[in-house]
Design goal:
440 residues, alpha/beta, Aspartate Aminotransferase, domain 1, Aspartate Aminotransferase, domain 2, 2 domains, seven-stranded mixed beta sheet, four-stranded mixed beta sheet, 16% strand, binds pyridoxal-5'-phosphate
């Protein structure tokens, strides 16, 4: 039996129509290093999307391996309820510095778990405080926060929601977001012309909202859409004025992706909750975390019989191996000045994507910030139902890059430390993959 036959006999791959694999089988990974995947036939493929946006320092980063092995010498995992573990203390002390004031850390494993926790904490505080009228959650149009039912409820993604409509919780989606293509767009600094419409929508729910959740600055799965930092600033002021919690889902944007430790820094805001995941361990092990304030924490803090405890748990909450790696990731990001380097790389990424657009004449609405650059395929009406993005993906893989377009949005979200020569190859492959898709 071939490797592929064995794979398809048992594995139900995520986010896939399994029948697609009959014509385009999964690529056979042998190993991975830096920004490359090496296939069993020896071919090298650029990981242009950091393996679903998590391999922020690329594959096989030596210091992370060393940190993992150091921790293995002590222990791998111990229940984190009722135990005190130095590795978790050290990590939490570091995380508490990311956004001064958000100094309480609750650990989980997947990103969606962090989202559930933040939402549950917000709703739970309202119950404890007797604010029974505040039961609603608002998210933004084009939002994405994960796949569990609560996370999907607050995700404005028809494709993923549709089969589960009957089970999703009611959520309000804020419309009319001031999208920009870069920080040069005047809307980035001032979205005053959009604000009255937004404020009208917000004001309707001023007394009934528990929280508003946002992907700060960049909405990932919604199409790598970038919005005005001024909008985020104004939204934060509004939430403070009306005692509504702001939850920043930094699962994709956090820890360097937009050129800062947190995307919230673009707007110089402090939310009530920050969710981290993906790059927290640079994709070595599943770990997510929710940071929140002492104020929120104190609402739950009381004698047990008062019934205020936050009794949420995940088996791998505070996994020691993941914590050891996360701690090392934070050190590397700082010591190697990765945030600053990402800001320097931003211009290069957009220049290269502009070259792809010029060469193919098939891209529009190029947009980018930090180490994210995206653009939409220009399609004629008969091409709109032809899964052109999927064809670009197939061509790119054959040519040596794992691009995984979001529908018809082409994007690069490479490891933050990707080398120049790899980016230049990525550009060439993207050009060829697009040209091959539209050659007839
Ligand atoms: C912004 C955002 N939030 C939440 C999630 C869910 O994270 P996970 O897939 O780890 O559950 C994702 C995943 O892509 C994401 O991009």
């Amino acid at each position: 039996m071939t490797l592929i036959a064995r794979d398809l006999s048992h594995i139900w791959h995520p986010c896939s129509q399994m029948k697609d694999y009959e014509k385009f089988p999964p690529i056979k990974i042998k190993r991975a290093y830096g920004s490359y995947l090496e296939l069993t036939d020896g071919k090298k493929v650029i990981d242009a999307i950091s393996s679903w946006w998590c391999k922020s320092l690329g594959h096989g980063y030596p210091e992370l391996k060393a940190a993992l092995l150091r921790q293995v010498e002590h222990y791998e995992h111990v229940i984190s309820a009722n135990t005190c573990q130095e590795i978790l203390i050290e990590l939490s002390e570091k995380l508490a510095l990311l956004c001064p004031g958000l100094n309480k850390v609750f650990y989980a494993s997947e990103g969606a778990c962090a989202i559930e926790i933040a939402i549950k904490m917000s709703l739970h505080t309202r119950k404890i405080m007797g604010e029974q009228g505040r039961k609603q959650i608002m998210a933004l149009q084009n939002s994405y926060h994960g796949e569990t039912l609560l996370a999907l409820s607050i995700s404005d993604m028809e494709l993923y929601r549709e089969p589960y409509q009957d089970w999703l919780l009611p959520v309000i989606f804020l419309q009319g977001i001031p999208y920009v293509t870069s920080e040069i767009d005047p809307l980035w600094q001032d979205c005053g012309s959009y604000w009255p419409n937004i404020e009208d929508q917000l004001n309707q729910y001023a007394d009934t909202l528990s929280a508003i959740i946002v992907e700060p600055i960049v909405q990932g799965a919604g199409g790598m859409l970038i919005y005005s930092q001024d909008f985020l600033k104004r939204l934060r002021s509004w939430t403070l004025k009306h005692s509504v919690h702001l939850i920043a889902d930094e699962i994709m944007t956090g820890l360097g992706r937009t050129g800062y430790a947190l995307a919230c820094q673009h707007a110089q805001i402090k939310p009530d909750f920050i969710c981290l995941g993906k790059g927290l361990t640079s994709g070595w092990l599943p770990m997510s975390a929710v940071l929140t304030t002492s104020n929120i924490y104190q609402i739950f803090y009381d004698d047990y019989d008062k019934g205020k405890s936050f009794l949420h748990s995940h088996t791998f909450s505070g996994n020691a191996l993941a914590a050891a790696i996360a701690l090392e990731v934070l050190k590397i990001l700082e010591e190697k000045q990765i945030y600053q380097k990402v800001r320097e790389k931003q211009k290069l990424l957009s220049q290269l994507m502009f070259e792809v657009a010029q060469s193919t004449q098939r891209l529009m609405r190029i947009r980018g910030i930090g180490a994210i650059i995206s653009a939409d395929l220009v399609l004629e009406s008969h091409q709109k139902k032809q899964r052109c993005g999927y064809q670009v993906f197939q061509n790119a893989v054959k040519l040596g890059a794992l691009l995984r377009p979001l529908g018809n949005t082409i994007y690069w979200l490479p490891p933050l430390n990707i080398e120049l020569k790899t980016l230049l190859s990525l550009k060439e492959i993207t050009i060829q993959a697009i040209n091959q898709t539209f050659k007839n």
